[in-house]
Amino acid sequence: MDSASGDSSLKIEFSPAARRVDGARLAEIHANPGFGLHFTDHMFVAEWTPEKGWHEARVTEYAPIPMDPATAVLHYAQEIFEGMKAYRHGDGSVWTFRPEENGARMVRSARRLALPELPVEDFVASVDALIRVDEHWVPESAGEKSLYVRPFMFASEKFLGVRPARHVTYMVIASPAGAYFAKGVHPVSIWLSEDYTRAGVGGMGAAKTGGNYASSLVAQQEATENGCDQVVFLDAVERRWVEELGGMNLYFVHDDGSIVTPELSGTILEGITRSSIIELCRQQGWKIEERKVSVDEWREGVASGRITEVFACGTAAVVTPVGTLKWRGGEVGSGEVTGPVTKQVRQALVDIQYGRAEDTFGWMHRVV
Ligand SMILES: Cc1ncc(COP(=O)(O)O)c(C=O)c1O
Q1: What are the φ and ψ backbone dihedral angles of 17, each rounded to 5 degrees?
Q2: Is the C-beta atom of 269 inside 6 A of ligand 1?
C-alpha cells in the first residue's frame, strides 16, 4: 500500500491482520465503546534512526510490542503523543478534524523532547492509512460516537544513558469512543490544585508528553478525594494565574459579552479545540481575549456575576461546562446549568465535525 495522503513520500507497507474482530463483536463494542478500552485490528508503525531517517512504515496487525527492559523510554520518558478523532458523516464518509494541526503540534513536541521530527504530511498519511484499513471500526454518526486516534513516538533504543535515543519508534493506534457525556452534557466540578503545579517556564508544559500527565495524577487524585471531576493548575511562579485542567483548556464568558481564555504562556498545551473556538467566536463577531486570568478573577467574577459561564475544551469532550470551582475551605459555582454561549460553541463545533454544518474554515479532512 502506498500512502495516498497529500504530499507524503512515506512508503507504507500493509500486512493484513490474521485475526480480525467479527461483526457481532464489533456491534457489541460499538453499542458500548467506553473510552480507550477496545483497539482496532491494525496499528501503524515506523522506525527512525539517524542513518536511515524514517523507514519501515507499515500497517500491521494490532499486537503487543516486545521491549527490552533497558528500552530508554521506560527509564527517561522520552515520549510524545497526540489525540484526535475520526468522525463518520451522515453519508457514510469518514473525516478527521484539522489533522495537520495535530501533526504540527507533534513536531513542536518532538523538538522539545529531542525526538526526530515526523513531517506533517507523513503524520497525516499515517493516520489516514490506519483509518482506511480499519474504516468499519468508525462508529455510525448518531450519538456523537467517534474513532479516537492516538499517534505516539518513543525512545525505543536499548540503552541506559541520558541522551536522545538513536532508535525511535512512531505508532498510531485507534479505539472507538462513545459520547463523552452518556447522559447528555452536564457541568463538571473543578478542584484547585494549590500544592502541585503542572509545568514551569522552560519546562515541557506546551509539549504533549507523558511526563506532564504523570505529574498531574496526584493532583487529579486529590480532586477525586475532594469530590471533584477535574483539577485546575496555576502557574508555578506566582501560583496565581490560571493555566489549564489536566487535559483541557479553559474559557470564561463575561457579562459584557467578552470571552476570555488564558494566554499561551509556554506552560500550557496549545489545544486545537481552544484555537478553533477562538476562530469560531471571531466569525460570530464575539469579542475574544487571550490574556492572563487570575484565580481571584475567577472566584470573584463567578461570585459577583461578572463571569457568567466557564467552560473547558478539548478533543475528548469538545466543550464541557464548568459548574463549580472548589478549593480548601471554599467553593463558587453555578451548579447544574449549561450556559447559552457554552451550548452554542459546543453545537457549532460538533456540527462541523459531524458534517451537519458547512465547514467554512476548511477544517475537515476527508479520509474515506
Ligand atoms: C493538557 C491538555 N490541555 C489541553 C488539551 C486540549 O487539546 P486539544 O483541543 O488539542 O484536544 C489537552 C488534550 O489533548 C490536554 O491534554
Answers
A1: -65, 140
A2: yes
Of 46-50, 91-95, 138-142, 204-208, the one with minimum mean pLDDT is 138-142
Between the CA of 150 and the centroid of ligand 1 the distance, in Å, is: 13
Cα 176 from Cα 197, distance rounded (Å): 32
Specify the DSSP element, H or E, that contains 109: helix 99-112
Measured at the CA of 309, the angle between CA 288 and CA 250, to 5 degrees, comes to 60
- The closest-lying atom of ligand 1 relative to the alpha carbon of residue 275 is 9
2 CA to centre of ligand 1 in angstroms: 31
What 3-state class would DSSP assign to 334? coil
Ligand 1: does its nearest atom lie under 6 Å from the Cβ of 219? no
- 131 C-beta closer than 6 A to ligand 1: no
Mean pLDDT across the stretch 314-338?
91
Collect all residues with Cβ–Cβ distance below 8 Å to 266 and sequence separation of at least 6: 201, 202, 205, 206
Amino acid at 70: A
- 325 phi, psi to nearest 5 deg: -110, 125
pLDDT at 141: 82
CB of 164 within 8 A of CB of 90? Answer: no
What does the block give as the cell for 276?
Answer: 478553533
For atom 7 of ligand 1, the residue with the nearest CA is 271
Q: Is the CB of 248 within 6 Å of ligand 1?
A: yes
Parallel, antiparallel, or unpaired for β 146-155 and 168-177? antiparallel
**Cα 315 to ligand 1 centre (Å):** 7
Sequence-distant (≥ 6) Cβ neighbours of residue 164 within 8 angstroms: 78, 114, 115, 155
Q: Yes or no: say if 335 and 279 are a contact pair by the CB < 8 Å rule.
A: no
Which residue CA neighbors atom 1 of ligand 1 most closely?
247
Measured by CA distance, the residue closest to atom 2 of ligand 1 is 247
* pLDDT classification of 1: cutoffs 50, 70, 90: low
For the question of whether the overall pTM of this predicted structure is more than 0.85, the answer is yes
CA of 230 to the centre of ligand 1 (A): 13
